[in-house]
Structures are given as structure tokens and as C-alpha cells.
Amino acid sequence: MAEAHQAVAFQFTITPEGIDLQLSYQALNQIYLSGVRSWKKRVSRMRNRVIKGVYPASPSSWLFVVIAILATMYMRSDPSMGLITKIQQHLPLHVSLSSQGQTMVSVLVFSTLLWLSLILALRFCLKLLLSYHQWMFEQHGRVSNVTKVWVVSRFSTFRKPLLYSYQTSLPHLPVPAIRDTLSRYLQSVRPLLTDPEFKRMTKLANHFEANLGNRLQRYLRLKALWATNYVSDWWEEYIYLRSRCPLMVNSNYYGMDFLYVTPTPVQAARAGNTITALLLYRRKVNREELKPSRVPGTVIPLCAAQCERMFNTTRTPGVETDVLQHWQDSEFVVVYHKGRYFRLWVYRAGRLLSPREIEHQMQRILDDPSPPKPGEDKLGALTAGDRIPWAQMRKQYFSSGINKRSLDAIERAAFFVTLDEEEQGMRGEDPAGNLDRYAKSLLHGKCYDRWFDKSFSIVIYKNGKSGLNAEHSWADAPTVAHLWEYTLATDAFQLGYTEDGHCKGEVDRSLPQPQRLVWDIPSEVQAQVCSSLAVAQALADDVDCHVFPFRDFGKGRIKKLRISPDAYIQIGLQLAYYRDRGGFCLTYEASMTRLFREGRTETVRSCSNESTAFVKALEDGETKIPTLRLFRLASERHQNLYRMAMTGAGIDRHLFCLYVVSKYLGVESPFLKEVLSEPWRLSTSQTPVQQMELFDLKNHPDFISLGGGFGPVADDGYGVSYIIVGEDMINFHVSSKYSCSDTDSHRFGAQISKALQDIMTLLSADTKTSLSSKGAAQPQAKKLL
Q: Is 482 exposed, middle or buried (0-12, 13-18, 19+ CB in 10 A)?
């Protein structure tokens, strides 16, 4: 109970002589400094609210407007055209103020109103600029006059924004015309259906549009007028929070450490720097010091709403639906090690502990010999199994007493940390196999040594390797990837380590011991833990993960051929799947809609008429020139589909929302029911590198990120995640299920590599032919000259 005594600021004893009051000045000082930190954060939040509330103007511009109005009044000119006089006549305090005082107050009121009007006008102009998306569809060398004017009117000249400065100026996600969505849908499924099947689907779509569709569309347009985003709240609730299946593998995803480098082999030291880097990032988010994310290569800002629930957030289970809970602040993290849970305070006297101090505390946890209490070691399995049993257990056994206090500590923690007993990474005699095991460890671990409900959990392995597991409902992968990029770069390049692998800095030896969380786990909960663990273990054992770096070439060589790297990879995936399964399937590629306020994702249906035509031509041995032409058409088509998805003209989110409206109205739609039940046998996603400036790959080429991955969406399908690193590497993460005899992650990975190589061989041959033709034409040109 030493921790409890340290937390007491005063003690008193009742004696015959009276009350003997004993104050602990050290504890009172800690309370005072903690309160100062809390008030500083409140003041900072209030200041930021004012700054972003008047953006794109600045608070100081109000003074400029006031001085300008006063100067013109001094020159006996009335810029208000009589409004200042009218304001003066209606002042409630005109009796108690002198004439000069009344004039001054009237000028201040008018100047403030004028200033606010100018802010609204600037914000409206900014919103117009951000609402223009046609620039995405312009071809090189064929830029329209409207786009030229838009470029000239660049809003990058506005003052430096805070993280959330653009939020109120971002446009709302538009609701597409129902006819356009249905037309695009039918076009997307055409290569997957036979003629009779396509005819039947066309009939269903036409019947839907002529009858129920327009009725549902009216309700959706009404929601779009009222809500900030007509998709995001329903997407979060019905796709994520209402799902009753396990989060592990099905929803959560993972992020990996550097591929070739482990900054330190000391587990506690790596934990110290990683935790410090994460908390520095949180400080930047709280102070809004992070630069707003932008469309790569442009100044166009993206919505930053997903950053709000990054830290101090937990998904709590419910019988019908889960709830995302977010707390304003948290001064501790919770650490899991060898079946025990510890609360680790990361602030002391209002200051963030140094990396060396956090390492010291982590080493104390590693050295703690105490065994776990009965039922404690595998308690995390409740978060890995089905949601309903966990919700029932939580309500019955974790809603009061010591169990509630310990669970509150986990749920209110800034994030969750696991000190893993295993070693992971690309090492030893089987580096490829070790990468696969590394991925599986981050995706599900032992099914009980992660807390899958937390917004994200950090895993630090015994050999110093690290990684994370992230819950999906609160944010999408690019937001977590941005956090993880900053963490890796800050850990390796800014905080650094001593020569013997320890964190830098000094240690305050008076730091209190990490606080062991106490549980009282009854036999009923232990039985449910075993049941949830069995469900989770079966799911984990069924996942086949394969991670491999593709080093033959990267985006540098692809871009020299004037082809989008993403389009190239997606067409390669279509070729690989065709070779693997002998046909095509409905393909999901995640695209973002963060050009709009509170935007999340949209689906790019990568299996198109053009891509399937190219694959068939290549596999049927068509001649080179027609095959190349088909590839170019497929590439252009994919780029166009991606742009349409980004600009709100996608297919699937619109149909999903129409389906939700139909459920609210209690009406059935055979068309929507069939569309939303179609399996995504190939689910793909690119993890973007957003902060390349943090990584000096020229001087430190080994500090290459492995990216991250996710589990398969369909039982008989593949999940493919890829990250384009630098100019010469693409890392792939492939997942499938052992229980399906038709899928094999290693086989599909080999097909991906071969497909990318075969396409490059085709394109390179075309390039050589073009160069030789030019060389042969040069002498003729000289003769003509």
C-alpha cells in the first residue's frame, strides 16, 4: 500500500488534546504543480479556439481594423456611411458616457462587426477554393482557365494554420445523383457477371431507381443538409460499433518497426523513447502545433477530425452496440507484462518524465517478480473474443469495486503498452518466416496480451523491436500511420540512445514505483475468459500472414514510365489474382474522402472493364502494342476511379447510406440487399508515407518502414496492404485464412511479385523500342535539316 500512502496529502489524528493535523508538503506541491499543468492546458485550448475561430484572419487583425476606422474618423471621413452614428443613438449607456466616449464605443462596435464580416467573407472564399476539385482531373499540358484562376488564387498565402484551422472551411460531402451512382455501379460489376446476370442486375437497379430509390434519396439529401457529413456517423456506428464479432483480426490492424534497423536492443530503453515520442505527439495535437495534413504534392488541406480521439480513448463493449469513450487528458499509461497490469504515471510535478526516467520505470516492471493474481494473466482475452459476452461480463463484474477501478485505469490511460517476452523482426536464419511471425504477433499476439479495445496499443519486444495494434472505429490507417512515422523518427533521430543502448538523460530516484492494478476475478469471469480465448485462438490460428519487401524496382522506375504507382500496383494485383484463382473478383481499395469535413474513406472498385481486358490480353498472348494500349487505358481508368472516390463521386458509401435509410423506414430493397451482401474477396489498401522529410534515407538508407497490414475481409479472400518506400522498394502485407483451401498468402505473394515484374518487362520493351525508333529517325532528321 506504499502507493496509497504517497498519494495522501494530509493525515489527521484525533487525540484528547484535539486534532493533530499532519500535512505532506511534498504531496501538496505535486497537487499544485499538476493543477498548474491542467490550467495551462485549458488556457492553451481557449487560445487555440480563438485563433482557429477567426481563421483565416488573425486576432491581431481586429486591432488593425479598429485603428483604420479611428484614423478615417480622425480625418473627418465616415467609412461606415452613417452606421456609427446609428449605433451611437442606440447605445444603452449613452447617458453615462461623454460624447467622445459614445463615439469610441460606437467605433469599436462597428469595427468588430466589420471585422467579423470580413472573416466570414474570407472563410467563404476559402470554402469555395477548397470545394473546387476539377484540378484533379486536368491532364498535363491541358489545364483549363478555371483551374489556372484557382491556382493563382492559392490559399497557401493565408497565415500559418493550426491543426484544426481549416475544419470549418472544408466543404461538406456531396450526395451524388442516384442515377450516376447506379450507372457507375453497373459499370463496376460488368466484368464480374455473365450477360444474363448483368441483365438481371440492370433490371433490379432500374426498378430500384424508378420506385424506392428516389424516396430514400430525399431523406439522404435532408440529412446532408443537417449533418456535417452524411456518411461518417452511420459508417462508424453500423460498420464498426455495432459489429458483434471479435475486433482482433476482423477489425484491428497493425503497424511495424523499421525493416533493417533496431535502434536499441534494450527493451526498457526502447519503451522509454517510444512512450516519450508518443506523448510529444499528443502534446502537439493538444496544442494544435501539428501542420494540417495535405494532399501529397499540393497545399490542399485534409480533414483533421480523426486526431481528436487518438489518445485517452477506449471502445467499451455493449450488448447491441459499443461506445467510443474519450477523455480530455490522461497522465498515465497502463503496461502489461507477464500477466500483470501496471499503471505508470508519465508526469510528475506537472512535467513529462524524461525518456531515461520512463526506461527506469519500465525496468522496475521487468524486474518485478510478483506473479499474476488468479484470472489476471489472460484477462485481455475478453477484448479479443465476441463482444456480447464481454459486455455482459463488464456490466456484471466490472462496474464496481476494485475491478472497476482497475478497468477504469486501463480505459482512461493515454494508451496501452505490452512488454512482450518474445523476440521479433527480420533476423536469424529464416528472415522471411520471421517477418511473417512478426506480423501475426502484432495482429493478434497471444490473444490475451493486448487490450484490443484501446485506440492503439504499443508492443515492445524483448530484443527492442516495436510495433502497434490499432482499433479501427475511431480513425483510419493514414491517421495512425502519421502518428507512427513521427514516433519512429523521433525515437531514432531526435531522442536517440547512449552507446550502451540506454535512453539519454538523468533519473529522479525518488520516483514512486509503478502501481500494480488489483483484480478480483470470480470463477464466472475466468470461465468466460477461457471461452473468449478459445474463440480468439481459433481465429488467430486460422490467419495466414505473409510480409515481403519487393526490391526489384519502386515508384521511381514506374513514374519514369508516366504511370501512377498505385494504378500500376492495383493492375498487378488483378493479374496476380487472375493467375492465382483463374478469374476476377470484386476488389476493394480504400480511398480517403478527407477533402471533406469529417470525411473518412470511400471504395475504389479496382476490378474494371479496362483492367480485366488488359489481364486477358496479356494471358492470352496478344501482341505487344494492343496489350500496351489496354494497360494504358486500365491505368487511366483506375486513376479516374480514385479521383472520383476522393471527390465524393464514389459508389459504395452512397449505396450504404441508402440502405441504412431503408432500414429506418422499414422497407426492403432486393437491389440494395444484394449489393451490400457481395463479398470483397480482394481487399487492398495503400499505407501512404506522409512525412518523408523526417527520414533521411539518403544518409540512413536502412531506416525503412515496413508499413502495416490487416486480416482478410472474406473467409475465401485476401487482404493486401502495401507501402511505397522511397524510390526503389514496395513492402507488401498479404493475409488469408488457412481454413480456405483456395487461398495461400505465400503463393499469392509470389504471384504479386511475378505480375509486377511481367508488367515492367512489357513496358520496358516498349520503352526500348521507342528509344531505338527515335535513334533510327535522327539521321533522317539531320538530312531534312
A: buried
Rounded Cα gap, residues 440 and 772, in angstroms:
49
The C-alpha cell that represents 688 in the structure block: 501512404
CA 474 to chain centre: 8
Q: Identify the CA nearest to 373 among candidates 334, 403, 412.
A: 403
Does residue 94 register a pLDDT over 80? Answer: no
- Using DSSP, state whether 682 is helix, strand or coil: strand
With CA atoms as reference, report the closest residue to 192 among 756, 678, 600, 568. 678
User: Residue holding cell 516519450?
Assistant: 276
Q: 60-69, 243-252, 329-338, 718-727: which has the minimum mean pLDDT?
A: 60-69
The residues annotated as belonging to the active site are 472
pLDDT tens, position by position, 299-314 = 889 999 999 999 999 9
- Amino acid letter for position 75: M
CA distance 414 to 100: 55
Q: What's 726's DSSP letter?
A: T
Instruction: Extract the runs of DSSP E, i.e. beta strands, from 187-322.
Output: 253-256, 313-316
Angstrom distances, CA of residue 653 to CA of 233, 473, 676: 12, 16, 10
**Residue 478, preceding bond cis, omega within 30 degrees?**
no
Asked whether the beta carbons of 334 and 453 are under 8 A apart, the reply is no
How many Å apart are CA 181 and CA 179, to the nearest integer?
6
Tens digits of per-residue pLDDT, 375-432?
999 999 999 999 999 999 999 999 999 999 999 999 999 999 999 999 998 877 788 8
Beta bridge partners of 258: 705
Helix, strand or coil, per DSSP, at residue 21: strand
What is the chain's Cα-based Rg? Answer: 30
Residue 496 CB-density burial (10 A; 0-12 exposed, 13-18 middle, 19+ buried): middle
Q: Residue for cell digits 452524411? A: 230
Contacts with 331 (C-beta within 8 Å, 6 or more apart), sequence order: 34, 345, 346, 347, 414
Cα–Cα–Cα angle for 551, 726, 752, rounded to 5 degrees = 35
Rounded alpha-carbon distances, angstroms, from residue 763 to 231, 297, 561, 766, 768: 40, 26, 8, 5, 9
Backbone phi, psi, residue 177, to 5°: -65, 140
Distance from the Cα of residue 23 to its chain's centroid: 47
Please name which of 753, 743, 772 lies closest in space to residue 551, comparing C-alpha atoms: 753
Q: How confident is the model at residue 452 (pLDDT cuts 50, 70, 90)?
A: very high
- Buried b / exposed e along 388-417 (16+ C-beta atoms within 10 A): ebbbebbeebbeeeebeebbebbbbbbbbb
- This prediction has a pTM of 0.89
Is the distance from CB of 513 to CB of 366 less than 8 angstroms? no
User: How many whole angstroms separate alpha carbon 534 and alpha carbon 385?
Assistant: 8
Q: What is the DSSP letter of 754?
A: H
Q: Residue 52's pLDDT is what? A: 74
Element counts in the chain: helices (H) and strands (E)? 25, 20
Residues 6+ apart with CB under 8 A from 614: 571, 627, 630, 631, 633, 634
User: Is pLDDT at 23 greater than 50 in this prediction?
Assistant: yes
Residue 372 · residue 342 · CB < 8 Å: no
